[in-house]
From TrEMBL:
It comes from the Archaea. Residues 3-303 form the FAD/NAD(P)-binding domain. This is Pyridine nucleotide-disulfide oxidoreductase. Belongs to the class-I pyridine nucleotide-disulfide oxidoreductase family.
Amino acid sequence: MKFDVIVIGGGSAGYVAGSVIARNGKSVAVIEKEKFGGVCVRSGCVPSIFLYDVSFFLSRLTEIGNYKGLSIKVDPDDIFASRNNLVEYLSEAGKKLVENSGGATFLGEAKINGSIIEVEGEKLEYDNLIIASGSSPSLPRIKGVENGLTEDQAVNLNHIPKELIVVGGGFAGTEIAQFYARLGSTVTLVTKGRILKDVSDDARTIVRDSLEWDGVTVRENCEPVYQDRELLKTTCGEFRGEVVYATGRRPNFPTGLESLHIEANCNGIKVDKSMRTSNPKVWAIGDVVDKERKVAHSAMMEGYISSLSILGRDVRVDYTVVPQVVYTDPQVAVVGRPREVKRVSKFPLGASTRAIIHGIKEGYVKLGVDDEGKICYGEVVSQYAEEIINIIALAIKAQMKAEDLALLPLVHPSVSEGVSNAAKALFNLDVDVFKDSNGA
Ligand SMILES: Cc1cc2nc3c(=O)[nH]c(=O)nc-3n(C[C@H](O)[C@H](O)[C@H](O)COP(=O)(O)OP(=O)(O)OC[C@H]3O[C@@H](n4cnc5c(N)ncnc54)[C@H](O)[C@@H]3O)c2cc1C
């Protein structure tokens, strides 16, 4: 059987690419070895944010209710069954979307043999190949590590661990530590350097305080030495409990990749701006690519870029406006080019009318402008950071001047008007903020 395009992997990157190719009248097959949806749907964003939501409601609804004069009592019910149903629904949707667009789907492991792709004994040929095979957890090389859980497994547990040790203070590890603590686990978070090393000190301090408020014991500058069932020996002491390793990921290279003679290294496959590899018939997208921020929305963007490029369009990937969100409470979101920042402004959400109505006390919107006065960076710490950061992403992409943003009448009262208030601060127009006696 021959297809115009074969896509290996039915995750965030693969289902987008397959659907776009099919909608444009080309024959396409998307091959998935487990279930459609990939990590984001099955063991990443979706189950993780579902548990984040549950833990948020459990921990904060009573408090928010009290603030608003309501008496609310929240108890956990069948949270894991609800999560499993949602994951199954979205996974099935990924497959159906490809088929609805006119694409063929195959279940089984794709093995590459030059211009032939083998799946479950069938031999498929292609004109163009897209590799969207994603990534898998990368575990530390310590004795007994096989007794622990990966981050993918941790978000799919069907019980609340009594005691949990999370190794790795990056995005996933910090999120897992907080939501299980809020669900009732006694959590220790152990990390090599500092937690959330890629975010600013301002944001890290707020998240750290929040973790401590939730009862998470944070042990920084600490590394695991060995695991003996539920005992983890580390450089900063011994801890007991179920152990989760959230210690990074490695690309999934399909069997036979070497037969394509494409350039790759241990971080992934090398591509140009249209996601094409060093082999002109082969594209690579998503977590399997050698790039910095491996998130679902960049994987999806690359799905569009690669498929449009195969369809003959001159489109290029732009990584300068890929927001990243840490789903802790409060959330931390960043976007843009921090190295180009010449001036910074910050609007505290404690001065936002809508935030005050909500009962949000902490958090801020921070903006960075470049030497031409254009917005080039944004950082938001807030319950709504995941939404607010998208506005800043748009402003950066549109090369918006800070002054134009300052005078933009965003909805009042809304938390997101903090974006234009942060821009106002650059021109001493942030009239909602109390100044100290020096006017500073
Ligand atoms: C705990 C956790 C939380 C996360 N939270 C977020 C978040 O909130 N927001 C965000 O943007 N990102 C998040 N991510 C990252 C996000 O999940 C990934 O960036 C995204 O899933 C990458 O998509 P992909 O299509 O490249 O790869 P994947 O989702 O890994 O999909 C690849 C697919 O290819 C299949 N496959 C592999 N090899 C073969 C083969 N040989 N034959 C056939 N099929 C094959 C796999 O089974 C898989 O289904 C999170 C990740 C984790 C682990």
